[in-house]
Amino acid sequence: MGLKPEGSSELLIGGKLVPGSGGTFDIVNPATEEIVGQAADATVADMDDAIAAARTAFDTTSWSRDHAFRATCLRQLRDALQGHIEELREVTIAEVGAPVFLTSGPQLEGPIADLGYFADLAESYEWETDLGEAKPMGIKNSRRLQREAAGVVGAITPWNFPHQINFAKIGPALAAGCTVVLKPAPDTPWCAALVGKVAAEETDIPDGVLNVVTSSDHQVGAALSSDPRVDVVSFTGSTATGRKVMAAAAESLKRCFLELGGKSAFIVLDDADLASACSMAAFGVVTHAGQGCAMTTRLVVPREKYDEAIALTRDSMAGLQPGDPANKGTVCGPVISAVQRDRVLGYIELAKTEGGVIETGGGRPAGRDKGFFVEPTLISGVDNSSRVAQEEIFGPVLVILPHDGDDDAIAIANDSIYGLSGAVWGTDPDRIRKVVDGVRTGTMAVNGGIWYAADVPFGGYKQSGIGREMGVAGFEEYLETKAVATPA
Ligand code: NAD
């Protein structure tokens, strides 16, 4: 059966695939600027129906209590999606502009396989804990804790790693026994809509348990974050939108889980292999055109090696020119849209007004008049207080900053409103440990270490977010705790 829509994809509401009340909207291939197809354009009224369906499914079915059935459904979803993997890969490259090499990892195959981790967790989790007996107020009681599904989850996601982020919400929320309304980004509706189609047609997931609402209108996401029938809003996106989501959620005091922006530091210590560190930093920021919240976009190097580090990083970045994302050798594809490209180019112009030097890149690549491509760009000569060192650019742009020793490097890393991720490169384990302990972020990579995995919680300190996604911690975001006491 073909998965890719001939025309428009549909919404999934209450177990039915339906058109959007707002008609359809176009999906643009960011590498070619051609129209890939259309997606159903939901209105606030469609969102209302989806929330009602999720509420009814939660309140009137045994979904939240039948752990084994949920595990079965999640494995069905994983297996069915794996059966469509090549079509999904094609869509992901066309809609997201994701380099094909990433689709065997976090852009597609990784998060689909990870549904199995959450299915296992539904079965193995300790849903009840015996707290034994105690004598509160002199009366003997036996006590236990029950963990229960939190209710209806509103999942709002961005466009940069759509499958990774959609499944990091759907997987644990369904495994926990919640019902879900997924509202993907307007730029990447098919990545979500096709999952809805597979769930409806090829799994036993009951009607209303998973709803997928694509829309070109951000207000449809706003309606989800403010609706009192929703118990948890799980949001990934920019810090600016995250603030609005939290304010909207405050009205009905719903639980708010936020994965937001980052401006992570890559710290190079003076005993590090400078060439390896610089080439890793360059590769990291150029991958998927820098559109990753956890990417290390500030390279912080010993002041005495600043010039050498600039030369090494410049050469590495210049060797990673943007290309067709469908090509196996491409590391840097396009950015998602003309708006995003212009935003990134605007930051490069801003760097110049802040006294920055463009060491390589700085514009659109020659010979690519179609597609939203930006040259890998290295900025030197600014300090950490500049806007290009403080604000999230979300393009293949790296700012290189000098430090005066390990403590100064830690201070620079922490001088940010964000605290999402980071990296350190060095030789002495004690000094590396001091940096890891000193930097206030949710993840740290040591000498190129990779923390990304289904069982590793991911999330931020400070204005990078609230809560953790993936792992047991990510699963428990979707649970409530009930304490039960009986006179013994
Ligand atoms: P965005 O904040 O513009 O949009 C994210 C989602 O929120 C979209 O689905 C959008 O339609 C919806 N939305 C917009 N306004 C809303 C409102 N008022 N109420 C409710 N929903 C609303 O983000 P983006 O441009 O799609 O994605 C890029 C951003 O996402 C970057 O800042 C990046 O750092 C962040 N991000 C963070 C993580 C993380 O895990 N920390 C992961 C990926 C991306």
Automatic annotation (TrEMBL):
It comes from the Bacteria. The keyword Lyase does not apply. One of its GO terms (molecular function) is aldehyde dehydrogenase (NAD+) activity. Residues 20-484 form the Aldehyde dehydrogenase domain. It is an enzyme of class 1 (oxidoreductase). InterPro entries: Ald_DH/histidinol_DH, Ald_DH_C, Ald_DH_CS_GLU, Ald_DH_N, Aldehyde_dehydrogenase_Rv0768, Aldehyde_DH_dom. The active site is at E259. The keyword Oxidoreductase applies. Keywords: Oxidoreductase. Its EC number is 1.2.1.3. It holds the Pfam family Aldedh. Belongs to the aldehyde dehydrogenase family. PANTHER family: ALDEHYDE DEHYDROGENASE, ALDEHYDE DEHYDROGENASE-RELATED. This is Aldehyde dehydrogenase (NAD+).
